[in-house]
Design a protein that fits this description.
The complex is a heterotetramer, with two copies of chain A and two copies of chain B. In chain A, about 40% of the residues lie in helices and about 20% in strands. Chain A is an alpha/beta fold. In chain A, helix 1 packs across helix 5 and helix 4 crosses helix 6 (about 160-180). In chain B, about 30% of the residues lie in helices and about 15% in strands. Chain B has an eight-stranded mixed sheet with strand order 2-1-3-4-6-5-8-7, with helices on both faces. Classes of the chains: A alpha/beta, B alpha/beta. The structure holds thiamine diphosphate (TPP) (2 copies), iron/sulfur cluster (SF4) (2 copies) and magnesium ion (2 copies).
């Protein structure tokens, strides 16, 4: 049995599908359920098909599903594209004012015909409120607590009493129409014990983590799927005392961040692969000059402009090796919104501690999917600026040797003489091309990675029992669908990789050696993580144990379950 | 206060004997000496090129980054700590070719920087290729048949893009250049000095002699607050008719005085609970 | 010759209803129809943005490359085959922000291109951020407190950088825009048209109404061969005082007519024996 | 015994060291010897220490050596830095007009004091001709055929009879002074049978290969170590009918090249790692739009500005993975000047055949070192533009499926309707985000790599006997020092890797499995090739078998020999 109820709403781009879907998710969350949503849309402002699916469950839920329990079709295309996802007992609600054909809806599916425009008109509303009718009707048919919908409307239009009133009336009319004509089901009923949750995307979580973690400067050139980070941050500059700067391009973004960090700020940039290409020179500049920065890299379908609004995990090797030569880079990947928050929060400490870039890999799937979680807990978190001094230091050596590879950092403007130099440099920062100096400084810089591995690197987490028949191994946003799949695969466990550089090779090698059958799961063409594991541990996945997907869609838990089950019955 | 002497570093300048960069270096140290620019109040950024070596020869905190990227680094520094004087030493290849985009955008935002262009109309460090400042017909390793391109006019470009202080000097006129640097530093906003800097090794066309012969000081009654006049004046470039002086000088709010003021080192854990309403 | 009809592709334009891009699209097809621009003589390049979708809606050979890079791709095409008419469709984010450096350098070299700027003063495709064309104080997702930056003036920038044909039109004035496109195409050299293009979804400030109310046609006796006058005129931007028309139009050698002429497809094995003397 | 005579000249940057060294090398070559030279200089126009070493031998010689047989010291610093390289029987020639201390020259070294300025003056020459005195004296003392020096001077100053005459007189004076005071040795004497050779650097060879191979467009923004490619090409545009364009930056360089190639040209770019960062977005654009281009990537000390005039092999992984997502890229590495010519020559055919970028990795060491070789032979070479049509094609599908992954390419302007689109696209080139189309087009593009592996990929070459006790494995410019080392290690052989992607994994895996002891040699910090081999073949080098160097200096044959011999005697 599927451990979630899945609701879907679809229609033409530009018609508020995402807003309606999010409202539905919030109603469910406020009623005491756990929710996860996933949306698909083309790289267009209007036209094209938009769809959002919300998984609702009594337990935490981590992904979307292939099947649908309730579908709102705002147009014919939605019905055509999604009718086959409807399972026995599902419902489909459509706009009876449009000439929509419902002939080949599968058997056993309840069909709810609601004339959106007619209802809106009768309630005295305007055309743009049609989604409210649909939503209210659907919620009513699912037995939801309608007060939540009303509250959400009141919050959205706070201060605009007229608008609230008319929207409420439209909702009431929609619900009334539905309940008059059809029987309600007891699916989304209000729970007694409601745990306080928030509904956030990976972008929300990253932005919140950066605020909590003390970021004081960020420059972001818009690019899907991370543009929303700037939209979330920009309004809070005064409240939290940081600067968001829209730069002319990504080259400027990273160089500004490096300058700000040099002057003492906690600096962050965010982009996608294309923008990261342009940042790749600055990436190594930060490494060479030992300037802390945090980089959020949101992957999407590639190469080139690619599939701008679809997901992929194709940039793993790129971020591990971008820039000429070698420098210490810390690379982490976020598996879900909680990880995104925690990694963003802690990335600044890591960057300051190791005085080098920290890159967090996310992807469209985690960036733009909402998940309900209890509010982020970070009481134990403390700002750690590492070896950072604002004292006056005589005969200051910026790049002095040390056991950890880290030297004392200070800032300009407080009478210290500090030199940052992109050329190979001596302990002071002056250009020095001698062999001895080169070896010393390279070893010093790379030593920081070894220190980080010993001091800060976290062991990967294993979900499920230690001695399972099947061990999944993956990274990034696949965490969600795999955790969902585990719910149906009691004999499987999952090793989730969060630290990509430094890399917990020993732990992983051990785990894989002991695993009865290890399966690598990735959203990219060649299985980049499988290759990386082979390089680092010597373990090589057989081809049949590489589950790869590269069509811009995330894995679905059913796909994973089916792959295993089909094989077992062969 | 630093003295000329203690702005020296352990490194001896290794520009070619006669290079115009010596003049810029001397003028800057002279200005610093006079004004008390030191490590309590000043930072310099530099591009990659012969010009960029200057950071090895001036004992001021410095950031020598990537070719073409001195301006965004400088903007970042200034935003993080607006109390710092930030000087940018850049080349014609650095600021106008590789970094051309930053040049127009940094000017338009009126970041409060002082930008000194080592304008030698050549790529020096890479041993002599045509630059966006080289005149049409210029012969170099990259244009052995003579360049087919009109040069960029950095003054006109700065004025058009939104710079609020735009001036030109010849690197050999050290006292005047030092004074201009001081004026540019005092100016609130994007202050740009195009320094005519002979490259004695790779550009025989624009020699010291050439500039000594062909420059003239802008008339005392020139109205530097008029954008059109400044633009017109910036188009002058002819034998005996290369103006030096202040072309444009207007008052406008700087970028840094408009934005949120962050404290350069105050980094605090923040409570985000107040934001949760939006997500509930 | 193609007709309006057969420049259509299988794709229906999916710009927002009312978007100014429809006007540009219609004007271009009208001009193409009149002039016989077809796949025997024409190629278009486009940037990434709402504007760039145009290549899906016009049945002419096209290159839609990376955000900000339509101009260098176009220059490469034109150098390889100067007989092609090359049209560049670009956005204000594309040409002035990400691609600002190419804009000034392509203009200065006077590549023989026709460049059409979809100037909506917004980043459309990324759902509405401030662009270098958005006015100071502009409120958007990226500047919720209002932008602190002066906008760039694309006409002044083009004139300063070296463009030889510089004009402006409103996207709703389809016949005039089509005529301008034809004139720009006939012009030898870098021809630039700043098209005032309302984004009805993300920029309510510059609406169709706004441009209908506030633009005026440049005086018939205006001397478009005078650089200073062109510059002055380009600075005009006020209520009721936004000039449209040809600001600047001069004759200069194009880049392509000065360089070595290569044949687009003639690729031959070459005998290098004559070069060995140098290495012996 | 060292299989070469090594001559070195050193002095301050800006004083014509390279020119003098090259003249020496040419005299040796014209006298019937094989030569190789290597130079070191800082990233400065003046000041700093420049030095050039020329290896001269009766057999082909592939690298520099640690020891020196004859040193010209133009200043004190040269003596101080290099005196310990002088071996028994070596000679050192210095400027007796300067106050140079020769006290601690090792025993058994002949010291030649020549008063450069005095001799120049007496011969009526000018100060700048001091190098001529030094060179003439050295050549005379080594028993060289002085006519070659005279010829070279005459060629250099062709048409300027006065200059030729005075330079000849200065040379004669230098030689006469030396021979009067010291005894000449019979080391560089004229050979009877002189094979015709040319003296070229990797940059020369690459430029010549590109010209021979039919390149018609190139845009290069100057950057060490490949700037010389543009200097070599620029003067020959009219003669050979191609365009060299100096672009505003590297982003423009690659996008112009892509545009030119789209329109039908054979296009090339050249840069170093920093510039390649900026090209990395265009790299994938070419992959996505299936536009052929050739990229020369010259590695140098990194990260950031790094060691701009020193060598390294740190960009291997970077070029293998640069750009978001995956696309077919052909990556080759040149081992010496002959390889550089052949790869450049053939890269254009490969690019046209597979309609995708071909990248050639070189480094400062191969780019700027001269080697004498017989003039390049390429009679069998034919231009192959692949599946390229200039016919009118009805209902043209640019991205049509095919067995090889390659579809018919045509050009604009000949009435075909051709669409290049950086978005994922359908067979025509129109944007298409559907799952089916995405999978088809990804498979199509990646199929080209498999086709290339089957059709064009070359097996790596093994130098030395098949069953050696020690097998070196390496790539790129290490070829030279390793081949030299083999001369002293009869029990060793060498597997040289030229094709890096596609990668001859099977051949390499077999070779390594059979090797008694396999040693990986690389000029980078982490052993990137060792990691790549582990990933691709499963073979993992023990740490002691990774010989790595990352100080900006190439390997010396003696270092390799010593490492082996020291171990053997442990
Ligand atoms: C991305 C990048 N491209 C190219 C270079 C090589 N490079 C170093 S300095 C320079 C040009 C220097 O010209 P300019 O800025 O005018 O400085 P100058 O040497 O004349 O002072 C170039 C192209 C580089 N370091 N980085
Ligand atoms: C390197 C890179 N950075 C960012 C983006 C994301 N992006 C796509 S379109 C666009 C801006 C579009 O603005 P504009 O050029 O004005 O076009 P419009 O949509 O307004 O027509 C951006 C930032 C990208 N595709 N590539
Ligand atoms: S090459 Fe030119 S710019 Fe560089 S140091 Fe020498 S004279 Fe100065
Ligand atoms: S978002 Fe604006 S520019 Fe884009 S299609 Fe809609 S109206 Fe046009
Ligand atoms: Mg210069
Ligand atoms: Mg726009």
């Amino acid at each position: 049995m599927k451990p979630a109820f899945t609701f879907k709403i679809g229609g033409e781009a530009g018609f508020g599908i995402m807003a309606a879907g999010t409202t539905f998710a919030k109603v469910a969350m406020r009623s005491g359920y756990y929710v996860f949503d996933y949306s698909e849309y083309p790289s267009l402002i209007r036209g094209g098909h938009n769809v959002m699916q919300i998984s609702v469950a009594d337990e935490p839920v981590n992904s979307q599903y292939q099947t649908t329990n309730f579908l709102i079709a705002l147009n014919q295309q939605t019905l055509d594209l999604h009718k086959n996802e409807l399972i026995e007992g599902a419902g489909v609600l459509y706009d009876a004012d449009q000439n929509i054909k419902v002939a080949d809806i599968p058997d056993g599916v309840d069909i709810y015909a609601i004339p959106f425009t007619q209802v809106v008109k009768q309630a005295g509303g305007s055309y743009v409120m049609r989604n409210s009718v649909a939503l209210a009707a659907a919620l009513a048919l699912l037995g939801a607590n309608m007060q939540h919908l009303k509250d959400l409307i009141a919050e959205e239009f706070a201060g605009k009493e007229e608008l609230i009133k008319i929207n409420h009336e439209v909702c009431e009319a929609g619900a009334a129409f539905a309940l008059e004509k059809y029987k309600s089901k007891n699916i989304l009923s209000q729970k007694q014990n409601v745990v306080k949750q928030i509904l956030v995307t990976g972008n929300d979580a990253t932005a919140l983590g950066a605020i909590a973690g003390g970021m004081t400067f960020t420059s972001i050139y818009p690019m899907t799927p991370t543009s929303n980070i700037l939209h979330i941050l920009a309004p809070f500059q005064e409240k939290f005392n940081f600067v968001y700067k829209q730069p002319e391009d990504e080259i400027s973004a990273i160089n500004m961040a490096i300058g700000a960090s040099f002057a003492g700020a906690r600096a962050m940039v965010a982009t996608s692969g294309g923008g990261f290409c342009l940042m790749s020179e600055g990436y190594g500049l930060a490494g060479m000059t030992e300037i802390p920065i945090v980089i959020i890299e949101g992957m999407r379908g590639a190469p080139a402009t690619g599939l701008p609004t679809w997901t992929e995990q194709g940039d793993l090797r790129f971020v591990l090796h971008a820039h000429q030569g070698e420098f210490p880079r810390i690379v982490l990947a976020a598996g879900n919104v909680e990880d995104a928050f925690n990694l963003a929060l802690r990335a600044f400490n890591l960057a300051d501690k190791y005085q080098t870039p920290v890159l967090i890999l996310v992807d469209k799937y985690v960036c733009e999917s909402h998940m309900s979680v209890v509010p982020f807990e970070y009481e134990d978190f403390k700002i750690d600026r590492g070896n950072f001094s604002v004292d006056k230091i005589v005969d200051y050596k910026r790049y002095e040797q040390s056991d950890t590879g880290v030297s004392t950092r200070t800032i300009p403007g407080i009478s210290n003489y500090i030199i940052a130099n992109s050329d190979e440099h001596d302990v002071f920062g002056f250009s020095d091309e001698s062999s001895e100096n080169r070896i010393t400084q390279m070893n010093k810089r790379m030593k920081k990675l070894a220190t980080c591995e010993e001091t800060d690197m976290q062991e990967p987490k294993v979900f499920g029992s230690r001695d399972a028949d099947i061990s999944f191994i993956s990274w990034g946003s696949n965490k969600g669908p795999i955790l969902e799949a585990l719910k149906s695969l009691p004999n499987a466990n999952y090793l989730h990789l969060e630290w990509l550089n430094p890399f917990p090779s020993e732990f992983i090698g051990d785990f894989l050696k002991k695993a009865k059958r290890a399966i690598n799961i990735e959203c990219n063409y060649s299985g980049q993580m499988a290759g990386y594991i082979a390089e680092k541990t010597g373990f090589r996945f057989e081809e049949k144990n590489n589950f790869l997907k590269f069509d811009g869609r995330p894995f679905y838990p059913e796909e994973i379950v089916k792959l295993i089950n089909n094989e077992n019955t062969k | 206060m630093k003295t000329l002497n203690n702005l020296k570093t352990k490194n001896v300048p290794n520009w070619c004997p006669g290079c115009g960069d010596f003049g810029i270096w001397t003028a800057f140290k002279q200005a610093a000496d006079k004004e008390g620019w030191d490590n309590s109040n000043t930072v310099i950024t530099a591009g990659i090129g012969c010009h960029g070596h200057i950071n090895n020869f001036v004992a001021l905190s410095s950031f020598e980054g990537l070719h073409g990227r001195a301006l965004p680094v400088a903007s970042g520094i200034k935003i993080a700590n607006p109390r710092l004087k930030v000087f940018v030493f850049t080349g014609d290849g650095d600021a106008l070719s590789e970094g051309g985009n930053h040049f127009i955008h940094t000017a338009r935002r009126n970041h409060d920087l002082t930008v000194i262009l080592h304008d030698n109309a050549i790529y020096g460090l890479t041993t002599g290729q045509t630059s966006p400042r080289s005149p049409k017909g210029f012969i170099s390793k990259s244009t052995p048949q003579g360049s087919f391109e009109e040069p960029l006019n950095p003054l006109a470009l700065a004025i058009t893009a939104g710079a609020t202080f735009v001036a030109r000097a010849y690197s050999g006129d050290i006292d005047y250049l030092a004074d201009l640097m001081i004026e540019a530093d005092k100016h609130k906003g994007f202050a740009f000095i195009d320094v005519l800097q002979p490259c004695v090794t790779f550009n025989s066309m624009y020699s010291h002699f050439f500039y000594q012969e062909n420059t003239y000081q802008i008339e005392a009654d020139f109205d530097a607050t008029n954008k059109q006049a400044a633009f017109d004046k910036s188009l002058e470039w002819d034998l005996k008719k290369i103006p030096v002086g202040v072309f444009y000088n207007v008052d406008k709010p700087t970028y840094e005085e408009q934005i949120v003021q962050i404290d350069k080192v105050k980094v605090e854990k923040r409570d985000i609970a107040s934001l949760y309403t939006k997500y509930s």
